[in-house]
Amino acid sequence: MLDQVQSPISLLLRQRAEGHSLPAGLYMRPDVFEADLDVFFRKHWIYVGLECDVPEPGDATVIDIGSSSLILLRDDDSQIRVLHNVCRHRGSRLLDAGSSVLSKLVCPYHQWTYELSGELIHAPHMGKGFDPTCHSIRPVQFRSIGGLIYVCLSDNPPKDIDTLERVMEERLAPYDIRNSRIAHQTDVIEDGNWKLTIENNRECYHCAGSHPELCVSFIDLDFGYDPESLGEDDRAEAEEHQRLYAERTAAWEAEGYPSAAFEQLAGNATNFRTQRLIIAGAGESQTPDATAACSKLMGAMTRKDLGDVHLWGHNAWNHFMGDHAVTVMVIPLAPNRTLVRTKWLVHKDAVEGVDYDIEKLTSVWIATTDQDSLLVARSQQGIEDPAYLPGPYSRFTEGQLDNFATWYVEQMRAHGY
């Protein structure tokens, strides 16, 4: 544990002013980057993938997080497993990056062989006294929450993941994410710190000026506005929107669809927020014309008018709609480089070109992610400028950023920084 008085990181944490962005060093320094990996990507629960990444027994995919490499797979009994990608002999990587189809896990170095459940079944030339039962692949603690896979690399994971599981299992049940299919995936490397990626996602202050495609279906007023800055007509429109939200939320919940905002943010270990949002325009989906992209609806869904169940976490954001879902994973690569992996999900039986058009399905979030990537890079460049000073958040539109920064400092201090 670091000395809280002498640690350069602790000095930076103490410099953070309430209601303001973080000091530059927290977005730039290599020691902070390593501390972030340790605290937020090893000791907290993080989203890493989906059950439908590995739909059949023998399917496996590798996820790298810092120096850790994980194997997400489905074993011979169709059970989801998450294993460390490390041979128990001399530590060789078992699988290369990407996806594989396996019957056994075989180390390419010395051919130690494991069942898909992780048990060692063959270790040549190890002698009679060798006990293979003591050398299974190390498992990773994980939860499948509505089909979303969360892992924690710590031996003492935060227990408040139970709240996320309780809230989201119910909300995601109609979408049957476990049995959906990945229609498309993109990987974008943003030239910025992972915290800038998350902060950019947690506000829509910039949406009207930066995301014309998204704003066809997304309502920026949902994330705050200064009523005094609006003209009389705009203020009346905003007030009507809030009235409609209350009415629509009450109706959705009366019909058995949990919809009200639920937050577990600062003051907690596991950080998340969920709410069922109204979709603008045609009101069906986040597409160029706000109509459904896929005619075969998700899971047991029979309606297109149930809005967008959004879910934020500290390394993810997700949108679940009647016709498809979008899930996004954020993984730090360097102090100024971040992987943003986006997946589009459809009903498991949906057929491209018959039930959906891939461009209509993906174009809004492809454009939005590319636009955000440029914004994050510009933010990183400005923060690296010696002229940068932490600026004030708008209390109307950037309250979630203040909450995130507060949570970040709390958790760093809780882990000895």
From TrEMBL:
Protein name: Aromatic ring-hydroxylating dioxygenase subunit alpha
Domain of life, per lineage: Bacteria
A Pfam family annotated for this UniProt entry: Ring_hydroxyl_A
UniProt keywords, alphabetically: 2Fe-2S, Dioxygenase, Iron, Iron-sulfur, Metal-binding, Oxidoreductase
Domain Rieske: 46-151
Stored PANTHER family: CHOLINE MONOOXYGENASE, CHLOROPLASTIC (PTHR43756)
Record has Iron-sulfur as a keyword: yes
GO molecular function term, any single one: dioxygenase activity
InterPro entries xref list: Rieske_2Fe-2S, Rieske_2Fe-2S_sf, Ring_hydroxy_dOase_asu_C_dom, Rng_hydr_dOase-A
Organism: Ancylobacter crimeensis
Entry cofactors: Fe cation
